[in-house]
Design brief:
Blueprint (H helix, E strand, L loop, with lengths): L2 H4 L9 E2 L2 E2 L9 H20 L9 H13 L5 E2 H8 L7 H13 L4 E4 L18 E4 L1 H6 L8 E3 L6 E3 L8 H5 L1 E4 L4 E4 L4 H12 L15 E3 L12 E4 L1 E6 L2 E6 L6 H13 L7 E4 L7 E4 L6 H11 L3 E4 L4 E4 L2 E4 L2 H42 L12 H12 L12 H8 L3 H5 L3 H23 L1 H16 L8 E2 L7 H4 L4 E6 L4 E3 L6 E6 L4 E6 L3 E6 L4 E2 L4 E7 L7 E7 L6 E6 L10 E2 L8 E8 L3 E9 L9 E5 L5 E2 L6 E4 L3 E12 L4 E6 L4 E3 L5 E6 L5 E5 L3 E5 L11 E6 L6 E7 L4 E7 L8 E2 L8 E6 L5 E5 L2 E2 L2 E2 L3 E4 H4 L2 E2 L6 E4 L5 E5 L28 E5 L5 E5 L1
Parallel strand pairs: 10-19, 28-33, 43-50
Antiparallel strand pairs: 1-2, 3-5, 4-5, 6-7, 8-9, 10-11, 11-16, 12-13, 13-15, 14-15, 17-18, 20-21, 20-22, 21-25, 23-24, 23-26, 24-29, 27-28, 27-30, 28-34, 31-32, 31-35, 36-37, 36-38, 39-40, 39-41, 40-44, 42-43, 42-45, 43-51, 46-49, 46-52, 47-48, 53-54
Helix pairs in contact: 3-4, 4-5, 8-11, 8-16, 11-15
Length: 879
C-alpha cells in the first residue's frame, strides 16, 4: 500500500512498529462524531419519540394515530391494521410501534372506542393481532381533540402530506392518561389522574381557588400519596393491593397495585413462598372482568400476619416514582402536575377563545352576505346588468346599484362579494322569501351577540364547558384508587419463621446449622439474635449458619428491637470477690455485633442469676449465702417486683457483700408492667401504642377487643398490632363480657323489624347475630348499657304515623345471641336512629391483686434492709 492510499486511514495519532507505519494501529478521535451525531440522536429520541408535548399531552406516534383516526373517521369501526397502515404515512418507524401505541391508548378507554380483544391490563394478556380488532374515535375525542381551523400544521416526513404540530386538546389529557417514556439521558413518568377530579381542579384554576391532585390508577388498589411531591422528581407513591379475609384460611385479592398484573403478582407470591418468607397452600386466579385471586393458607397460619407479609415481600405493595417531564418549546421541561393542569387549563381557555373568534368571524361574514343577498334581490339590483356587455361593466353596475342600501353593513362591499352575488341562480331569486331571509339574519344576529357575550366572559364560558364535559362524560369515571396513609411494616415481624435456631452454650456458637445442638426457637434468615454470656456481656448478631458469640452462653433468643415489654432480671457478682448486685432492664436501640457489658465492668464479674420475662414478670427468689465470718442468716428471699426497671447500663442495687452459694426460684412472677394502652388509627386502619387516633383503653394480657361489622357479624380478638380490620366495621371497642349488645335489624324472610339484646357467648368464634336470609340487614347496633332508638315511619296515603322512641333495655331482656328477638313493629319503617342513651353508672372495674400498687415493702428477714427513696429507687442491703 503506497503512502497516498495510507493517508485516508491516518488519524491524529499514528503509531509505528519496528519503525514501519501500520495502518491497523490508526486511532481516530470521535469527539466530533459524539458531539454532533450523538446529540442529534439524543435530541431526536427526546423530542420525537419518548417525551410527550405539554400542549396536547401526546408523543408524536400517538398524535399521528389520532390524526389518522380522524382522517378515516366515518362513524364506523376501522380495522386497526388499516389505521396502522394509514399512520405510516406520517410515522416512519414500522407498524409494530404504531400498533403497540394504539393498543395502549385503547386500553385507557378514553379516546378510542374499541371492538374485539384489546388485551387486559389486569391479567397482562396482550391484544389480538391488529387485523382482528377494530377502533373508532370516541365522542369525547371528537369533541375535545379536533379543531382544524386553529390547528398548526407541518409537512410530514416525506413532504407529501400535512400533519398537526400538536392537536388543540381542550382538556388536561396528559394528566388523565398519564405518560411514560425513556429517552437518552432523561425519562418521564406522569401518573394517570381521575377524570372528574381533573375537571373539578380545572374549574378551581379558573376561579383562582386552591386544589390538590393525586393519581388514580385503572387497576384501583390503595395508595399512600403522602410523598407524591406534586408528581415531580423525588416523589414516591406507595400502592397496595386490596386484600380481604374470606375466611380463617382464605385471603382474597380484589384489586392490584398499579404497574402490576395478576400474573406478575402471583409469581411474586410464589417466589416469596419458595424462599420461605410466607407460607401458603394454594393460589387460585379467578380474574375475569374483575380481579379475584384466592390465597389458601395452611392450618395455623395467621391471616393478618400473612397480609402484612404479602405487603412486605411480594408485589402486593409497589412503589412508583413519578417524574414530570414534558416537551415545551422543543426543550425538556420538568414540571409538577399542578403546573401541568394550570398550563392545560389556560391553554383550553385560549383555544376556546380562538374558536369563538373564528366562529364570530364566520357568523359576521354569513350575516354580511345574507344581508347583501337580500339587498341584491329585494331591490332588484340584478336588473342593472341586463344591458352590460363586459364583465367589468357587470361588476360596476352591481356595485353602483348596491351603494344606496349598504350603509348599515358592518364592512365594505368587495369585488369578491359581488362575484358571489352573480353566482346566485335564477331559481333562487324567483323563490326568494323576504320574511324568511329576515328571520335568518335576525337569528345570525342573536348568535353573534351570544358569541360576543361568551368572548367577553370567557372564563365563565370555559367553566361551563368543563362542567358540560363532566356531566356528559363523567359517569362511570369515579375515583378507583383509595387514598390512605400506610403504616410501615417491619419485615422481621411478619416474615415466616422458616428455619430453626440452635445454640452450643459451652463453646459459644449460635446458628441455623448446629442441628446436633440445643434447639432455641424458629427464626427467619432476616432475624437478629440476642445472646447473654456468663461473664455479663451481651451481643446482638444476625442469624447465620454458624456464628461465634462467646463461650458460656446463659440465654439466647430471637431479638425484637422494638420490644420494650420483655424485661431481664439479673443478679451478678462484681469482680472475683466483690459484692453482688440486682437489676432489671430491657434492651432496645443497640448496635449489631457490638459487645455490651451489663456488669459494673470489673474483671472476672459473673452472672449468678438470669431470667427473661416477655411481659415484665417479677419472680421471688431465695438467696443462699456461704458460711463466712459472723453471718447469722444464710438464706433470705428477694422479690424482683421491688426493683425498679432501669437502663441496661445501670449498676443495680446491692444484694449482699458476702459470697452467694446458690440462688433458687421460690415463686414464679406476675407482670409488673402497667396495662398497655392501645389506640386505633382510622387513617391507616391499624392499632398502635404510639398515641395515634382513638384510645381504645388499657389492655392486660387477657383483655380482648369487640368488633362488630355492618353485615351483622361480631367477634372478639386479642389486640395484636398486626390485626387487619374489614371495611364494614362499625364498632371497635374494648370488650366487657358482661356488657349487653343491643341491635335492631330487618328480617328478610319475615319482612319485619326485630329488636334483641344479648351477650357474646363464644369469644373465640365469629358469630352472626341477625338472621341468615339474604335480605336481612342490620339497622343499628349499640353497646351502651341503656340505649334508646327512634323509629320514623313513612307517609302512607297522605297519613304520617307518629315517630316512636324505644327504650331498648325495657323493651326486651338479654337473651342468647341466636335468639330471633322481639318484633319491633309490623309497619313499614323509613328510618331507625340511635339517640343518646339513658343515664347509667358503670360499675368500677376491679383491679386484680397482682396489679395492686404496693405502698410499703414487707421485710422478709431481720438482717435485710430495703429502703424506698422519694424518687422511687429501691436500696437493698444486708447486715
Amino acid at each position: 500500500m503506497d503512502e497516498e492510499n495510507l493517508e485516508p486511514l491516518k488519524g491524529e495519532h499514528f503509531y509505528e512498529r519496528n519503525g514501519n507505519a501500520d495502518p491497523l494501529d490508526t486511532i481516530t478521535k470521535v469527539t466530533g462524531m459524539y458531539k454532533d451525531w450523538f446529540l442529534d440522536y439524543a435530541s431526536y429520541v427526546i423530542l420525537e419519540r419518548a417525551v410527550p408535548a405539554i400542549e396536547d399531552g401526546f408523543k408524536p406516534v400517538q398524535r399521528r394515530i389520532m390524526h389518522s383516526l380522524k382522517e378515516l373517521d366515518d362513524g364506523r369501526y376501522n380495522k386497526v391494521a388499516n389505521v396502522v397502515g394509514h399512520t405510516m404515512q406520517y410515522h416512519p418507524h414500522g407498524d409494530a410501534s404504531i400498533g403497540d401505541a394504539m393498543v395502549q391508548i385503547g386500553q385507557k378507554e378514553l379516546l378510542i372506542d374499541t371492538q374485539g380483544n384489546w388485551g387486559n391490563i389486569l391479567t397482562g394478556d396482550g391484544a389480538a393481532a391488529s387485523r382482528y380488532i377494530e377502533a373508532r374515535l370516541s365522542k369525547f375525542a371528537l369533541e375535545v381533540l379536533y379543531s382544524p381551523k386553529i390547528t398548526p400544521w407541518q409537512s410530514s416526513y416525506d413532504g407529501r402530506r400535512n400533519e398537526p404540530v400538536n392537536l388543540p386538546v381542550k382538556f388536561p389529557l396528559l394528566l388523565a392518561q398519564g405518560a411514560e417514556g425513556i429517552a437518552v439521558g432523561l425519562s418521564t413518568k406522569v401518573l394517570p389522574h381521575n377524570f372528574i377530579e381533573l375537571i373539578d381542579a380545572s374549574i378551581k384554576v379558573l376561579k383562582n381557588k386552591p386544589f390538590t391532585l393525586y393519581p388514580d390508577f385503572p387497576t384501583a388498589g390503595i395508595a399512600d400519596m403522602s410523598n407524591y411531591n406534586d408528581g415531580m422528581r423525588g416523589g414516591r407513591v406507595r400502592v397496595r393491593a386490596r386484600i380481604g379475609q374470606l375466611d380463617k384460611s382464605t385471603l382474597v385479592i380484589t384489586q392490584i397495585p398499579f404497574s402490576t398484573n395478576t400474573s406478575t403478582l402471583i409469581d411474586s407470591i410464589l417466589k416469596a413462598n419458595e424462599k420461605g418468607k410466607i407460607k401458603i397452600k394454594k393460589i387460585e386466579d379467578n380474574t375475569a372482568a374483575d380481579v379475584e385471586i384466592l390465597i389458601h393458607l395452611p392450618p395455623g397460619v395467621s391471616p393478618d400476619k400473612t397480609i402484612d407479609a404479602l405487603f412486605a415481600f411480594t408485589a402486593c405493595e409497589t412503589s412508583v416514582a413519578p417524574l414530570g417531564c414534558v416537551i415545551e418549546a422543543h426543550k425538556p421541561y420538568f414540571v409538577g402536575v399542578s403546573e401541568m393542569l394550570r398550563i392545560s387549563t389556560h391553554r383550553t381557555v385560549d383555544l376556546l377563545k380562538r374558536e369563538l373568534e373564528i366562529q364570530l368571524s364566520e357568523l359576521e361574514e354569513s350575516w354580511h352576505f345574507q344581508s347583501l343577498e337580500r339587498i341584491f334581490i329585494e331591490n332588484r339590483v340584478y336588473r342593472a346588468i341586463e344591458e352590460e356587455e363586459t364583465w367589468e361593466g357587470v361588476i360596476k353596475a352591481i356595485d353602483e346599484g348596491l351603494k344606496p342600501f349598504t350603509t348599515h353593513l358592518r364592512r365594505a362591499v368587495t369585488e369578491e362579494d359581488i362575484v358571489r352575488l352573480t353566482e346566485i341562480r335564477i331559481k333562487r331569486i324567483s323563490k326568494f322569501d323576504i320574511d324568511k331571509a329576515q328571520e335568518k339574519i335576525e337569528a345570525l344576529e342573536g348568535e353573534i351577540e351570544q358569541v360576543k357575550y361568551n368572548l367577553a366572559n370567557i372564563v365563565e364560558f370555559a367553566v361551563n364547558y368543563f362542567t358540560s364535559l363532566k356531566e356528559r362524560y363523567g359517569k362511570g369515571r369515579e375515583r378507583k384508587t383509595e387514598i390512605r396513609n400506610f403504616d410501615n411494616i417491619e419485615a422481621t415481624k411478619v416474615v415466616l419463621r422458616n428455619t430453626k435456631l440452635y445454640v452450643n452454650r459451652e463453646e459459644g456458637f449460635v446458628g441455623t446449622g448446629l442441628k446436633k445442638d440445643e434447639y432455641v426457637a424458629d427464626c427467619s434468615d432476616i432475624d437478629d439474635v440476642i445472646v447473654f454470656l456468663r461473664n455479663g456481656s451481651m451481643v446482638i448478631t444476625k442469624v447465620d449458619v454458624k456464628t461465634f458469640v462467646g463461650k458460656d452462653i446463659i440465654h439466647v433468643a430471637v431479638f425484637d428491637k422494638n420490644d420494650k415489654r420483655t424485661i431481664y432480671n439479673m443478679i451478678y457478682r462484681d469482680g472475683k470477690s466483690g459484692p453482688s448486685y440486682i437489676k432489671r432492664f430491657n434492651v432496645s436501640g443497640v448496635t449489631r455485633d457490638k459487645p455490651y457489658d451489663l456488669t459494673a465492668g470489673t474483671k472476672d464479674s459473673m452472672v449468678l442469676y438470669f431470667s427473661d420475662n416477655p411481659n415484665g414478670e417479677a419472680e421471688v427468689i431465695s438467696v443462699l449465702l456461704r458460711q463466712v465470718g459472723s453471718v447469722k442468716k444464710l438464706k433470705f428471699d428477694l422479690d424482683f417486683a421491688t426493683i425498679a426497671i432501669k437502663g441496661r447500663a445501670s449498676r443495680g442495687n446491692t444484694v449482699t457483700k458476702y459470697p452467694i452459694k446458690k440462688i433458687e426460684l421460690k415463686e414464679k412472677g406476675i407482670s409488673t408492667l402497667k396495662p398497655r394502652r392501645i389506640w386505633f388509627d382510622d387513617t391507616v386502619h391499624r392499632l398502635n401504642v404510639d398515641g395515634r387516633g382513638e384510645l381504645l383503653g388499657e389492655f392486660r394480657p387477657n383483655d380482648r377487643l369487640l368488633i362488630i361489622n355492618q353485615n351483622g357479624k361480631l367477634k372478639t380478638i386479642v389486640p395484636e398490632l398486626t390485626t387487619h380490620f374489614d371495611e364494614g366495621m362499625i364498632v371497635l371497642e374494648k370488650w366487657k363480657p358482661n356488657k349487653p349488645i343491643s341491635a335492631i335489624y330487618y328480617d328478610g324472610e319475615k319482612e319485619r323489624y326485630y329488636i334483641k339484646r344479648f351477650l357474646v357467648e363464644n369469644e373465640n368464634k365469629e358469630e352472626l347475630f341477625i338472621t341468615e336470609h339474604e335480605k336481612s340487614q342490620l339497622e343499628i347496633v349499640s353497646t351502651d348499657y341503656r340505649p334508646v332508638a327512634e323509629i320514623i315511619f313513612p307517609k302512607i296515603k297522605g297519613v304520617q304515623k307518629e315517630t316512636i322512641t324505644v327504650d331498648m333495655e325495657s323493651f326486651i331482656a338479654v337473651k342468647g345471641i341466636k335468639a330471633l328477638g322481639n318484633q319491633l313493629t309490623a309497619d313499614k319503617v323509613r328510618q331507625v336512629n340511635l339517640l343518646d342513651p339513658l343515664p347509667y353508672e358503670e360499675p368500677v372495674e376491679e383491679i386484680p391483686e397482682e396489679m395492686d400498687v404496693k405502698d410499703e415493702v414487707r421485710l422478709t428477714d431481720e438482717n435485710t434492709t430495703i429502703t424506698l427513696n422519694d424518687d422511687g429507687q429501691i436500696t437493698l442491703s444486708l447486715e
